[in-house]
Amino acid sequence: MQSQKTSTPTPDQIRRAPKVLLHDHLDGGLRPGTIVDLARESGYAGLPESDPDKLGTWFREAADSGSLERYLETFAHTCAVMQTREALVRVAAECAEDLAADGVVYAEIRYAPEQHLEAGLTLEEVVEAVNEGFREGERRAREDGNRIRVGALLTAMRHAARSLEIAELANRYRDHGVVGFDIAGAEAGFPPTRHLDAFEYLKRENNHFTIHAGEAFGLPSIWQALQWCGADRLGHGVRIIDDIQVAEDGAVKLGPLASYVRDKRIPLEMCPSSNLQTAAAASYAEHPIGLLRRLHFRVTVNTDNRLMSGTSMSREFEHLVEAFAYSLDDLQWFTVNAMKSAFIPFDERLAMINDVIKPGYAELKAEWLFQQAAATPALASGSATPQG
Ligand SMILES: [Zn+2]
Questions:
Q1: Which residues on adjacent β-strands are paired with residue 25?
Q2: Where do runs of H (alpha helix) occur along 46-153?
Q3: Region 338-360: what's the mean pLDDT?
Q4: Annotated active-site residue in 97, 215, 316, 318
Q5: Where do the structural domains in the chain lie, given as residue ranges?
């Protein structure tokens, strides 16, 4: 018999495994067909393609350009068709539905309310429309036999000056579908310390926030996000690898910031496919997630932008299983890490871990064990005849 370690999970097992997603942008996950429909309904003429398949390909290719700035350009199109209440409800509902169909049981989906005001909606109307969509998507998922819970994170844009206003909005809706706050956008030239008043406000309100940091930019960005701004989690954080030295003999030495991140169990919202597209990593096999997982950092796996990266939670896990030969135990570890790091109350996180995630993985591992047991006697006797 092989080792007790569960075998390499199949794509079907990965899809059925309960998954938790902490870093996914609402305007980065639309169905191409929905973009085409919404553009037609709203009279938006800026789409580069009108055929959904071709449009999906266009998004992936544009995002493959290798620069974060160009990657962000693709969002002009998705935001353009997300300007009415109906459009926001539809996009949010489909988001929850798609994630649930992929086996995601808990997700925190982020969006920037300030980017959906062009047709006259107020910030509050945007939040309420997205909340309505998430509830509708959860309901439709239940009808399809899938269970998912979705919370919203409100994002403020790094280059804009509305972060305090958005932080206040997040706080106002914290018991109504919004679980936290985030800062996103191009890192270069827009350090998180520009938004200190928003972070200080949220800390005084005992609220939670994550910051996109250490993606295109190095250690100073991570350091500021943690030590000046007080982020609960790091969006990406891949560049923490710059503070870790691996010697020829494999000995590892952590610098002071990397030590702090590991010791304080700071969650890293890693998004492998997205990092490859923005050139923050060269290949899945070379992605820092392999080393960080071995060193027991609080690593989580995420999708970032499912449309632009042509990905899903299952696809991200498949890439990592292929690159690092991860087992079901590894996938469970990432999933429990993510659930521990969610912004919902502790008792609810614990219930998700004990009542949903662990039983889900136990079921998949049990399946595997019985398959192994069924296969073993025939192999041992050198005969294909089943043993009694
Ligand atoms: Zn992101």
A1: 110
A2: 52-63, 68-73, 75-80, 85-101, 123-143
A3: 98
A4: 215
A5: 11-365
